[in-house]
Design a protein that fits this description.
Helices cover about 30% and strands about 30% of the residues. The chain is of the alpha/beta class. A hairpin with a 2-residue loop joins strand 9 and strand 10. Helix 2 (about 30-40) crosses helix 3.
Length: about 625
């Protein structure tokens, strides 16, 4: 008998187990199989290494004279290898079986059926499944176990306890060996592939994401990780909205019309648990609800269809959902820019959206939209923010927009669109978000005694900027009231700042809507009679040196790269002279439109070979 195994049969080890002691058995290994196994092993797939181990077992049987082993045919070309998922390599293997009048051995049902259709003798063997139908690591889970963490060379650990008292602890004193970890990982994957209760969500070199029943399991292997690691997570509670304490108007808000809601909180705070409670609540009130998840691990009823990334792309999933027309879609989790784009597109198309977002404060969830969604559109995309802490609803914000003068400013010509973030229960304004000097700023409205508010800091920076444009020496600013400030400058700069007949300082006051008193540094009680060394300083502490940057000038922008400082507010200086204040975008840069006054100052400083530095604001 002559056998030609395909890649699936070699990987599963189904060739050597079919060898008996009779003489005359010949095994022909297609070179296309060898090439595919080699490619998988080089890419870090365990399947490639399993297949190579089976070939070594067959070589040992050939050395013992039990079988005749030959390698035949040709290797797949680069193009054929790239199209392996479309059957190009399988076709080469079938040709080898047909040309040698051999029996094709396969664990691939599609390959077997195609071979039968082409008149090739084929033997199909079910994929080997070692599991007895139970998750092999289920013994590590108790009633209050949220996650189990296993790794080669370490003791098993778990996160256990209530949501408000979770602890990470060792649960077994036995150190996990590599062989044991490998066995657990193989059994988990086999169980997920063979059971109707499980599926493989993601399979990449070194990382497999599996969903089995209500367990989400991540299996990491070298070279992606430094050892085999298994992390299994499951929800420890399924709740309804009745289990949460909050204003009943939130329920009414969700039902009166489709909304844009962000559910935020720290990892493990209970965001997804609350999201599934919202999904069930909406379904029970006759709304059509779908989910978008990767991986799909929300524990929702059968009436709610759970979708994942179609072709690896949530945008494609969204296009399909728009044809289905759900009333609400639960998006778990919204993290990357493309996720926010999809969320916004679906919301603006009229679909109610509930997004789950990682954030350490309620306002941080909303700020993640800044720079990703046009500022004026944010309240149309998100009108409600729910912050979860320790499994409870901690904060709910109502998000609206209004054209007004921002809180703390007075000049009527400073009116602009302002996003107002208010406490949902009391209606008390908590934050305002608006553009100021071409930068988007978030200003807290709960002033603390003895500390500058966001408006105070902005006012100081803008006053200093205006004065620096006419003064030659050091400048510092002191706010003495909501609409009053004292500016301290060098004595030689007094006349330049005030201008002829007070005209220059009057123009600055009119632009800013603030009354300014100009004095020398000697009049500054905090400076001790010494010249100050920057805004708001008393001449005592030296300014931080800052980070030296090299701005890039493009056709439309001057760009300052600030990787690692996303969301931070910084000051940009030239040779330690203040230029402007900016917030680093989600892309890790500051972009200033060319032609603006700020860009012209920055370009002029670059042309003069001045050192450009950035320091925290």
């Amino acid at each position: 008998m002559t056998l030609v195994p395909d890649t699936s049969a070699v990987i599963d080890g189904r060739v050597s187990e079919r060898i008996d002691d009779s003489d005359g058995q010949t095994v022909l290994i297609p070179e296309a199989v060898v090439g595919e196994l080699e490619s998988q092993a080089n890419a870090g797939y365990d399947s490639g290494w399993s297949g190579l181990e089976e070939l070594q077992r067959l070589a040992a049987l050939a050395d013992a004279g039990t079988i005749e082993l030959r390698y035949v045919g040709r290797r797949a070309s680069e193009g054929e290898q790239a199209a392996a998922s479309e059957g190009e390599v399988d076709a080469i293997i079938r040709d080898v079986a047909a040309d040698n009048d051999a029996t094709l051995l396969s664990s691939d049902i599609v390959q077997s059926e195609v071979a039968k259709a082409k008149g090739i003798d084929v033997t199909y063997v079910e994929p080997e499944i070692d599991s007895d139908g139970e998750l092999p690591i289920v013994e590590f889970f108790g009633d209050e176990t949220m996650s189990v963490h296993l790794k080669t060379g370490t003791k098993p650990k778990a996160k256990r306890g209530a949501l408000d008292g979770m602890s990470y602890k060792t649960i077994d004193e036995t150190v996990s060996t590599e062989a044991q970890m490998d066995e657990w990982a193989d059994e988990i994957e086999s169980l997920a592939r063979s059971s109707s209760d499980g599926f493989v969500e993601l399979s990449e070199p070194g990382m497999t994401i599996i969903q089995y029943e209500d367990y989400r399991i991540a299996v990491a292997r070298p070279p992606f990780s430094d050892g085999i690691e298994i992390t299994a997570v499951r929800p420890i509670a399924k709740t309804t909205l009745d289990d949460y304490v909050f204003d009943d108007r939130l329920r009414e808000r969700l039902l009166e019309q489709e909304r844009g809601v962000l559910i935020s909180g720290s990892p493990g705070a209970g965001k997804s648990t609350f999201a599934q409670a919202v999904a069930e609540f909406l379904t029970d009130n006759d709304y059509a609800v779908k989910t978008m998840e990767k991986p799909r691990d929300l524990q929702v009823g059968d009436d709610i269809t759970q979708y994942t990334a179609l072709g690896g792309d949530m945008a494609t999933t969204a296009d399909s959902l728009l044809l289905v027309r759900p009333d609400y879609t639960i998006y778990d989790e919204v993290r990357k820019t493309e996720d926010f784009d999809v969320f916004a597109d679906m919301r603006l198309a009229g679909v109610g959206m509930v997004g789950v977002v990682h954030a350490t404060r309620a306002i941080d969830a909303l700020q993640r939209l800044v720079g990703r969604v046009e500022l004026g559109m944010i309240p149309q995309v998100v009108d409600t923010v729910v912050y979860i802490e320790a499994g409870e609803v901690h904060t709910v914000y109502d998000v609206t927009t209004e054209v007004k003068v921002p809180e703390g400013l007075t000049a009527e010509d400073l009116a602009r669109p302002v996003i107002q973030v208010a406490d949902f229960e009391t209606g008390t304004p908590a934050y305002e978000i608006y553009t100021f000097n071409r930068q988007v700023i978030t200003v807290p409205l709960d002033d603390e005694a003895g500390s500058d508010t966001g408006v105070d800091r902005i006012a100081k920076q803008e006053i200093e900027r205006e004065i620096r444009s006419v003064a030659r020496g050091h400048v510092s600013v002191e706010l003495t009231g909501q609409n009053n400030a004292i500016v301290y400058v060098e004595e030689s700069d007094i006349s330049y700042v005030i201008g002829k007949g007070g005209g220059r300082i009057s123009d600055i006051e009119d632009r800013l809507g603030i009354d300014i008193d100009v004095r020398t540094h000697e009049d500054n009680p905090d400076a001790g009679g010494a010249a100050t060394n920057g805004s708001g300083g008393g001449g005592v502490e030296a300014e931080p040196a800052g980070e030296i940057v090299q701005p890039e000038i493009t056709a439309r922008h001057v760009v300052i790269r600030m990787d690692g400082h996303v969301g931070e507010t910084v000051e940009v200086r030239a040779d330690d002279e203040y230029l402007f204040t900016a917030t680093v975008s989600s892309g890790g840069d500051i972009q200033i439109s060319r032609g603006s006054a700020i860009a012209e100052e920055l370009e002029d400083a670059i042309d003069r070979k001045q050192q450009i530095t950035v320091i925290p604001a």
